[in-house]
Write a structure and sequence with these properties.
The protein contains nine helices and 14 strands. It has 344 residues and is of the alpha/beta class.
Length: 344
């Protein structure tokens, strides 16, 4: 009997769902999306650190008390949505699995672990059945990019990807949102700024630095995109290089993506392919100044793609501009969609 059979959810009319990190920006979004999509929740178990325990969250017009996260928090829980950082996932996710819950983890803790599926439901839903209690949610920038690239890869096989990201501060969390807002107000009023979250001023600035630097000169965020893309697309032969940049935008990540394909494909063929791809919206009419913008994709579920054009420097190249809401499809929505796969 395969190991994963032990962890299949018993079919029920409703489920006990825990949200770890319930008071964070992604945790709050998870709770909202569970309600929006009418996920069959019989009981919500909001969990957070001791600092946030006792706060309340609203779900289906009911106020739920946030409880302190502990290894005993998961008794009776069917599905545990984790969004509290890799350290807490490593510490508490195994306890959730031992208690009988299936963990859907939004951190980097398990993404590249052997035997842990890394899932984007529109792309590799089949990988869910291979889980042994933990399913990983990919990096927010990786999700947006692979949503746009998988249909192209299926058509003409992608050989190489060069991506530069322009990532909003909400990817860091509430403290970063507050820092950008506070610095902006201070600078506009000719006051000194405070820098706590980022190593440099983020207001009116761009930082080519997301997560820690590694020995190879790349950051962890950049190498996440390299390794996760290959795992999700199930193709280790794809060359991937990334530069990730934090920009003074509150919400939504943008990406300039250049690909080289094995066979020639035109920009119009790419538009046609992506127009029928689930979860992707082609928004591409430069003559009318129509292209994806962070302010337009905020709160939207789709990944927006525009500026589709052929790379004239190589025989088989395509450029794309990809924008998606990092808190929704890049995190909370993708996690809830994975939970929907589980209960099917």
């Amino acid at each position: 009997m395969p190991l994963w059979v032990k962890f299949m959810l018993k079919k029920k009319s409703s489920y006990v769902v825990a949200v770890v990190g319930a008071t964070g920006v992604v945790g709050k979004e998870m709770i909202e999306i569970l309600e929006e999509r009418n996920f069959p929740v019989s009981e919500l178990v909001p969990l957070a650190s001791e600092r946030s325990a006792g706060e309340r969250v609203t779900f289906r017009d009911k106020s739920w008390v946030v409880k302190k996260l502990s290894k005993d928090s998961f008794q009776g829980v069917d599905i545990a949505l984790f969004s509290a950082g890799a350290e807490r996932s490593l510490e508490f996710a195994p306890s959730a699995v031992t208690s009988g819950a299936v963990v859907i983890d939004n951190s980097s803790a398990f993404r590249m672990a052997p035997g842990v599926p890394l899932v984007v439901p529109e792309i590799n839903a089949h990988a869910v059945v291979g889980h042994a209690g933990i399913i990983a949610n990919p990096n927010c920038s990786t999700i947006g990019m692979v949503m746009a690239l998988k249909p192209i890869h299926d058509a003409v096989k992608i050989k190489r990807i060069v991506v530069t990201t322009f990532q909003s501060v909400s990817g860091t969390g509430k403290e970063a949102i507050d820092e950008l807002a506070g610095q902006t107000v201070a600078l506009l009023n000719f006051r000194d700024i405070e820098t706590k979250v980022y190593p440099h001023q983020i207001a009116f600035n761009c930082l080519p630095h997301i997560d820690a630097f590694l020995e190879n000169g790349y950051t962890k965020e950049e190498m996440k995109m390299v390794n996760e893309t290959r795992k999700i697309l199930e193709d280790e032969s794809i060359g991937v290089t990334a530069t990730t940049v934090r920009v003074p935008v509150f919400r939504c990540h943008s990406e300039a993506v250049n690909i080289e394909t094995e066979r020639k494909i035109s920009a119009n063929e790419v538009r046609a392919i992506l127009s029928s791809a689930p979860g992707v919206l082609v928004y591409d009419d430069p003559k009318k100044n129509l292209y994806p913008l962070a302010i337009d994709t905020t709160g939207k579920d789709d990944v927006y793609v525009g500026r589709i054009r052929e790379d004239e420097s190589i025989p088989n190249g395509i450029n794309l501009w990809v924008v998606s809401d990092n808190l929704r499809k890049g995190a909370a929505l993708n996690a809830v969609q994975i939970a929907e796969l589980l209960i099917q």
